[in-house]
Amino acid sequence: MATEHALTPSSYIEHHLSFNSQSIGNGSFWSLHVDTLVMSVALGVITLGLIWWIARGATAGVPTKRQAFMELVFDFVDDQVKNIYHGDRHAFIAPAALTVFVWVLMMNAMDFLPVDWVAAAVSAIGGEHTKWRVVPTSDINTTFALALTVWFLMIFFAIKAKGLGGWIHELFCSPFGTNPLIWPANFLFNLIEYVSKPLSHSLRLFGNMYAGEVIFLLLGLWAATGVTGTIAGAILGAGWSIFHILIVALQAFIFMMLTVVYLAMAQESH
Amino acid sequence: MDINFTLVAQAIAFFVLIVFTMKFVWPPLLNAIETRQKEIADGLAAGEKGRAELEQSSKRASEALAEAKVKASEILALAEKRATQIVEDAKGTAKAEGDRIITGAKAEIEQEINRAKEGLRQQVSTLAIAGAEKILRKEIDAKAHAEILTAIANEL
């Protein structure tokens, strides 16, 4: 693969790990990762549209196979939520959990697309130097956006369940007690909790997906060493793909569970 | 690791998707599943009810059967008793009838005997007269000796 561009392993990986970033204003914040946004919105629309299409034709009688499959997913999510949250879960938390699970699962699953096929397709469509990352969850913006949305929802539900005063009271008076002397300790404790929740929530998913992508790229580098290396890389890549099925599903599940746990915890009094 | 406006866009997309699921995806699925669950529960309850009814009616049937058996045996006993009675009655009637016939026959026989005796007495008296005629070798005035002859005949 010796070309005039002097393709080095680091330039290969860098190319694959660069976002299709478009500036929409001044400063580094005002830019958009078009690839992340297009992929995630397209996946969300396609997946949830499909589920919506199935749900619209749902019958209480003998279900079709696609409805039966959807009901399996539904029951799976509903059971998880039922065990954690004991309020009216059908109003918000359970649908939110289903959205998170399905959407994150689909975004994670983009990791299964062979990295160089995607690159080849993208360069065929948009030119050789077009950058395009297909796994939206390996973009910290996506996972952080999800975690922050959950975080805001968490605070919203906490205030809704306990009232603004009750929420502030809890910030200072739990978990250690109501004594004014330990208010700072309580507040510090809660502050750490409120900061660590979205961080651990988002970084866990991001780290797993990013690492998965990097390993695929490193295995792809074997192709530069010749035929034997290509075959070895293909076998290792297949192995990593198979193992990655577990990671993709597990991370989507963990992300959903944490969402449910955070939202459920917000509505419980300490 | 650059945080940029993508974050805001993704958060909006996420929220829209949640609302979409909440409004359009979750309710029909929940409705379908809950309706089916209710239908299945109703069906099971109906089955259970039917089973209980069957049990009860089979119990009732066996009760009725037992009652009928008791009644039948009662009727049988009654009939037997009645038959015995009829036989007894018939026996009594027959015995009375037999007795009556026997009595009648006995009376007839008595009468017959008496008649024969009467006939015999007459014949004997005739014979006695004839014998006496022969013995006396002369005619006997029947009228004159009629008194004696009658006496003899009566003695016989």
Task: Characterise the protein shown here.
The complex is a heterodimer of chains A (270) and B (156). Chain A has helices spanning 9-16, 34-56, 65-84, 93-109, 115-126, 140-173, 183-220, 227-266, and strands at residues 21-23, 31-33. By secondary structure, chain A is mainly alpha-helical. Chain A has one domain (31-266). In chain A, a hairpin with a 7-residue loop joins β1 (21-23) and β2 (31-33). The mean pLDDT of chain A is 89. Chain B is mainly α. Chain B has a domain at 10-112. The longest helix of chain B is centred in the middle third of the chain and has 131 residues, at 6-136. The mean pLDDT of chain B is 89.
Summarize the structure.
The complex is a heterodimer of chains A (270) and B (156). Chain A has 270 residues and is mostly helical.
Output the keywords:
heterodimer; A: 270 residues; mainly alpha; two-stranded antiparallel ribbon; 8 helices; B: 156 residues; 2 helices; 0% strand
